[in-house]
Each structure stands twice: as C-alpha cells, then as structure tokens.
Amino acid sequence: MQLVYGSESSETSIKTGINKTEDTTSKTAPNFTAPLLLQEGSVSLTDFRGKIVYLDFWASWCGPCRKSLPAMQELHTELSKSGFTVVAVNVDEVIQNAKNFAIPLALSYPLVYDGNGNIAKSFDIKAMPMSYVIDKQGKIIHAHKGYRSKDMPLIRQALMEMLKEK
Amino acid sequence: MKRLIFRSFILMVSIAYLASCAEVKPWQKENLAKPEMQFGDQTLSDRIKSHTYFSKESAHGGTGSSSGGCGCN
Q1: What tens digit of pLDDT does each residue of B19-69 get?
Q2: Boundaries of domain holding A143
Q3: Residue B58: CB partners within 8 Å, gap ≥ 6?
Q4: B28/chain A closest Cα distance in angstroms
Q5: Residue B25 touches chain A, beta carbons under 8 Å
Q6: Exposure class string for A131-164: b at 16+ Cβ within 10 A, else e
Q7: Are A63 and B34 a contacting pair at CB < 8 A?
Q8: Total structural domains in chain A?
Q9: Taking residues A27-48, what's their average pLDDT?
Q10: CB-CB under 8 Å, B70 with A59
Q11: Which candidate among A68, B4, B56, B63 keeps its CA 20 to 30 Å from the CA of B49?
Q12: Interface touch A120/B33, C-beta < 8 Å
C-alpha cells in the first residue's frame, strides 16, 4: 500500500491509493541523529525501528504548523501504545523561536532540532510543513505536503491500517 | 572567426555567472516568511483584496504569499 497525499493532486492519490508523482516513497528513510529540542540528549531515526513513525518537518514561522503539531499530538496520544510514534523535526535557524513555539503546546512526542537543515536536505522536503510515514522496516510509505485538517481522518485511517498489518 | 567564437563563449559564460538567482528550499524560507517581507503592510486587508482579485479574475498566484511556503492554500 502506498499513498502520497497533500495539497497537490491529493484527491486522486487518496482515492486511487497509488500515486507515482513522488519518488521518495518506498525508499529507505535516511537515518539521522539530532539533538532533542526541549531536553538533553539526541535521538536517531533508527531508535524507532519496529515502530511506525510519522516524521513531521515544522518551523515556528510556518503558519499551518500551529495546527499540525497539536493534531499530531492527538494521533500520538491515540496510537502510541500500538507501536506508533510522531517525531517532529524543527528547522528554525534560531532555536529559541522553536522552543517558544513548542513549549506552550506541551507535546509529548520527540522534538528534534535541525537548525542547519541537514535532515530536511536529506529528505529533500518539498513544502513546509511536510511529513512522512515510515514503516517498521524504515521505509517511507507516505509523503504528505502541507497540512490541511481534512487530511487527518485519512491519515489516521491509513495509520490504523498499517498498524493492523504485521 | 575563432576569436569571435571565443569572445562569444566568454560572454555567454560571464552572463551565466552573473545570474544570481538561487533556489530557496522550503526549510530556508524563514526570512521570507517574516511580515516585513510582504509587499503590503496590511497583511489581512491585502489577503482580502487578493481573495477578491483572484475570485473576480479566476486567476491565482503571482502576488506573493504571507505564509511560509507551505503546500497549503
């Protein structure tokens, strides 16, 4: 199962279930090790191997991120016990802007800091925000450009289906 | 003739190097997303005018954006 959805050609890709416009899907997600934004220490993408990862790129200057990050928290709260986690990668140049943005949201999923944009570059993100669903084997299954609240039920449904698969 | 071709080549290479356009990646648009980078100083009224404009003209784009380059409308 492959889905690529977002602001461009989202309707057709969701309906057909297959979208060939994005060549990033089905590739192994590039690994990274990055410092946590709000705590000491760092995390690697491989730390989450065996879980379905929703990797979300965001920035404090990105308007839709104000909506997407809390929506991701809902997903994380709902599905984290089923082998799912959200990992949010911040690309702010000034780390304090990111902290000021994230702290009031009280997010429980890992927030990592990518101030020099190396992770964003390795994923070659096409929009802000942009997110990827990575399967238990570390392969990119879904890519999602932008954020629209009406996409959330579809994302949730796709994740539920993936979590059912063994 | 050879000299003319050489000079033309040098001229073309020089022009190519003079072009200073660079692609700004989505994660590099922090400064472009700042309010002071917008053409107008009235962001809300500008957006309303823009909405009216593209509704009337059935055309969209080309007038800048107040967002951070996300894929959303």
Answers
A1: 667 788 889 888 888 877 777 666 678 778 877 877 777 665 555 544 444
A2: 3-164
A3: none
A4: 8
A5: yes
A6: bbbbbbebebbbbbbbbbeebbebbeebbeebee
A7: no
A8: 1
A9: 95
A10: no
A11: A68
A12: no
